[in-house]
C-alpha cells in the first residue's frame, strides 16, 4: 500500500505496470488475510457443529439403548409367557389327555408364518420372509393403535414411531402388551384355510390321527377323560342314604366339541356316536367355538345335596364347635372381670348368614323348647353389652347368676351341643326337671298347662308371617310340648271336634244321646273329667299386665295368682 501511495502522484513509462503489480500484491494479501479469518471462523463453527452432532448422536444412542431395552423387556415377557404356556401344555397341567406335544405345535405355527411369505428374496428362507412381512404389518397396526397412549392430543395423521416406545410409562406397559397380544392372536385367528394350523389343530381330527382310526382305543381314552371329569368332591354315602336326608342329588353331564351335535366338521361327526356312550342324550353335546377346536371338554356336575353330605364336614363342625366353646368361655371370663383374650375369629362378618348345616340334636332341641316354655331360658338384654341374649339363671353360694348362652334361639340349640357348654346343658335340664316335678296337685298341673298353652299362643303370634300354627316350626314345638303334657298328665281330656253343617234332625238326635267317653279320657265312676274350657275372654295379670286365657288361675309370665272378676 505504501508503494501504491508513493507512485500514484508520479509520472513514468512503467507507472501502470507498477501500479498493477502493487495492486495484485495487495489483493493477494487481502485474500490471504480473509482466507485465514474465514478458516479460523469455519474451524470454530465446525467444531461447534461437531460437538452438537456428537451430543445429538449421544442422545440418539441413549434413545436407541432405551428403545432396545424396551424391546428386550417386551420380548422377554412374551418369551417367558410363551415358554410357561408351552411348559404347562407339555407337562399336562390339565385334567385330561394331551393330544399335542410341544414340537408339533411349533411346527404348526412355523407353517403359519411360512404361509405369509411372498416372493423369495435372495438367500432368505420362507420362514424369514414370512416373519419379516408379519412383523412389518403388525408394527404398523400396533403403533397406530398405541398412538393414543403416546399422545392424547395430536394431529390426525400423527402416528407413534418405534423410537417413541420408551416414552410410554410403566403404567401403560400392560395396555401396550395387551395391544400386541390382541393383534398377534388376530393373525392366528385369521390363519389361511390352507395352513396346517387350520387343518390339523382340531381335537377331533387329532384323535383319529393319533390313534389311527382305532375306535376301541379312541373310546378307551374318551372314557379316561370322562372319568377324570367327575366332581372333585367326596360325598358321605352314609349321610346321603340316611333317613333324614330327604333329597336325591342331581347329576348333569355335558360334552363340548367343535360345532356341537350339529357340527359341520367331518371328524366331529364321526366322534359323536362314540361320545354318546357317556351322555344320556344328544342334547348334552354342546358346541365349542372355532378358537377352542383343539379341545373336547367333558363336564360333570352334581348338586341338590346338603353341605353336610360332604366328606369331612363332621370333623370340620367339631373343630368349629371347639372354637365356639373357647370363645364362649373367654366372653364369660371377661364378664367376670378376668383378662382373657378372645380366640382368633373364623367368621368373615359379625353375624354369619347361617349357623349350621347340620340338623339340631333332637334331645337338645327338645330341651330348649321345654326350657323356653317354662321360662328357664329367656331372652333379655345384657346390661353390660346392651345386646339381646338368650340366658338362664343358676344359683351360687352368694346368690344367683345370669349365664348368657347365645344371641338367638336358633344359636342356643347349637351352643348347647358344644362340649364346653355341657355344664350349662346339665343345669338347664336339672331346672326343667325340677319345675316339672312340682306338678303333684291338680292346681299345679293346671297352672303348668296354662303356661305351656300361653307359650304356644305367643309362638303362634310370632310365627304369623310364617304361617302361624300351620308353620313347621310351630308344629315341631307343639309336638314337643304335647309329649310333655301327655307324659306328666297335665290334661287328660281330649277336645271334641264338632262336625259342621249337620242336619237339624241329626243334631237333635245327638243331643238326646248320652255322651260316650273316649278311650283316652280315662274316665272312672268316681270322677268325670271336666270338658276343656273354651275361653271367651282374657284375664290380665295385676302384677305384670300379661294377658292370660280366662281359664287360667296363674299368670303364665310371672306366676302370680290371677284375680277373676265375674
Explain what you see:
The protein is mainly alpha-helical and 566 residues long. Helices cover 50% and strands 8% of the residues. It contains 17 helices and 8 strands. A 3-stranded mixed beta sheet has the order 2-1-3, covered by helices on one side. It has a 3-stranded antiparallel beta sheet with strand order 4-5-6. The protein has a two-stranded antiparallel ribbon with strand order 7-8. Residues 502-536 have low confidence and may be disordered.
Task: Give a quick precis of the structure.
The protein has helices at 2-7, 15-91, 102-115, 126-150, 173-189, 196-200, 203-210, 215-228, 237-240, 266-275, 313-335, 362-373, 409-415, 422-437, 442-462, 472-487, 504-512; strands at 250-258, 285-288, 297-303, 377-381, 388-396, 399-406, 538-540, 547-549. By secondary structure, it is mainly alpha-helical.
Amino acid at each position: 500500500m505504501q508503494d501504491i501511495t508513493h507512485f500514484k502522484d508520479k509520472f513514468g513509462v512503467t507507472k501502470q505496470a507498477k501500479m498493477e503489480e502493487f495492486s495484485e500484491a495487495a489483493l493477494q494479501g487481502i485474500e490471504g488475510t480473509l482466507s485465514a479469518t474465514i478458516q479460523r471462523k469455519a474451524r470454530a463453527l465446525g467444531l461447534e457443529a461437531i460437538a452438537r452432532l456428537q451430543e445429538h448422536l449421544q442422545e440418539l444412542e441413549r434413545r436407541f439403548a432405551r428403545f432396545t431395552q424396551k424391546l428386550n423387556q417386551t420380548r422377554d415377557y412374551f418369551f417367558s409367557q410363551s415358554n410357561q404356556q408351552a411348559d404347562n401344555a407339555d407337562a399336562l397341567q390339565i385334567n385330561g389327555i394331551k393330544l399335542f406335544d410341544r414340537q408339533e405345535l411349533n411346527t404348526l405355527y412355523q407353517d403359519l408364518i411360512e404361509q405369509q411369505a411372498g416372493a423369495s428374496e435372495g438367500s432368505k428362507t420362507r420362514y424369514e420372509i414370512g416373519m419379516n412381512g408379519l412383523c412389518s404389518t403388525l408394527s404398523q397396526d400396533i403403533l397406530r393403535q398405541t398412538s393414543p397412549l403416546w399422545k392424547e392430543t395430536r394431529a390426525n395423521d400423527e402416528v407413534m414411531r418405534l423410537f417413541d416406545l420408551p416414552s410410554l410409562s410403566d403404567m401403560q406397559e400392560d395396555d401396550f402388551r395387551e395391544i400386541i397380544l390382541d393383534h398377534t392372536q388376530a393373525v392366528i385367528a385369521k390363519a389361511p384355510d390352507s395352513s396346517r394350523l387350520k387343518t390339523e389343530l382340531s381335537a377331533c381330527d387329532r384323535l383319529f390321527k393319533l390313534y389311527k382310526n382305532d375306535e376301541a382305543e379312541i373310546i378307551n381314552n374318551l372314557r379316561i377323560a370322562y372319568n377324570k371329569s367327575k366332581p372333585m368332591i367326596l360325598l358321605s354315602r352314609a349321610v346321603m342314604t340316611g333317613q333324614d336326608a330327604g333329597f336325591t342329588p342331581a347329576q348333569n353331564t355335558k360334552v363340548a366339541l367343535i360345532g356341537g351335535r350339529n357340527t359341520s366338521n367331518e371328524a366331529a361327526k364321526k366322534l359323536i356316536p362314540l361320545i354318546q356312550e357317556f351322555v344320556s342324550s344328544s342334547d348334552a353335546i354342546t358346541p365349542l367355538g372355532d378358537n377352542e377346536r383343539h379341545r373336547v371338554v367333558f363336564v360333570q356336575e352334581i348338586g341338590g345335596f346338603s353341605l353336610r353330605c360332604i366328606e369331612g364336614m363332621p370333623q370340620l363342625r367339631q373343630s368349629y364347635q371347639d372354637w365356639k366353646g373357647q370363645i364362649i368361655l373367654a366372653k364369660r371370663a371377661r364378664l367376670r372381670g378376668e383378662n382373657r383374650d378372645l380366640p382368633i375369629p373364623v367368621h368373615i362378618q359379625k353375624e354369619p348368614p347361617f349357623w349350621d348345616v347340620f340338623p339340631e340334636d333332637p334331645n337338645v332341641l327338645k330341651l330348649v323348647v321345654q326350657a323356653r316354655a317354662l321360662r328357664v331360658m329367656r331372652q333379655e338384654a345384657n346390661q353390660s353389652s346392651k345386646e339381646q341374649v338368650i340366658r338362664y339363671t343358676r344359683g351360687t353360694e352368694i346368690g344367683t347368676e345370669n349365664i348368657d348362652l347365645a344371641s338367638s334361639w336358633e344359636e342356643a340349640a347349637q351352643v348347647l351341643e358344644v362340649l364346653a357348654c355341657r355344664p350349662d346343658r346339665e343345669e338347664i335340664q336339672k331346672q326343667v326337671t325340677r319345675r316339672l316335678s312340682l306338678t303333684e296337685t291338680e292346681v299345679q298341673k293346671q297352672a303348668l298347662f296354662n303356661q305351656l298353652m300361653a307359650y304356644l299362643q305367643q309362638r303362634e303370634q310370632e310365627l304369623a308371617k310364617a304361617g302361624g300354627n300351620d308353620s313347621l316350626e310351630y308344629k315341631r314345638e307343639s309336638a314337643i310340648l304335647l309329649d310333655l303334657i301327655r307324659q306328666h298328665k297335665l290334661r287328660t281330656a281330649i277336645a271334641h271336634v264338632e262336625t259342621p253343617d249337620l242336619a237339624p234332625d241329626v243334631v237333635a238326635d245327638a243331643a238326646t244321646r248320652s255322651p260316650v267317653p273316649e278311650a283316652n279320657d280315662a274316665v272312672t265312676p268316681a270322677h268325670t273329667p271336666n270338658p276343656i274350657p273354651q275361653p271367651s275372654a282374657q284375664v290380665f295379670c295385676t302384677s305384670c299386665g300379661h294377658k292370660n286365657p280366662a281359664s287360667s288361675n296363674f299368670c303364665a309370665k310371672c306366676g302370680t295368682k290371677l284375680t277373676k272378676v265375674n
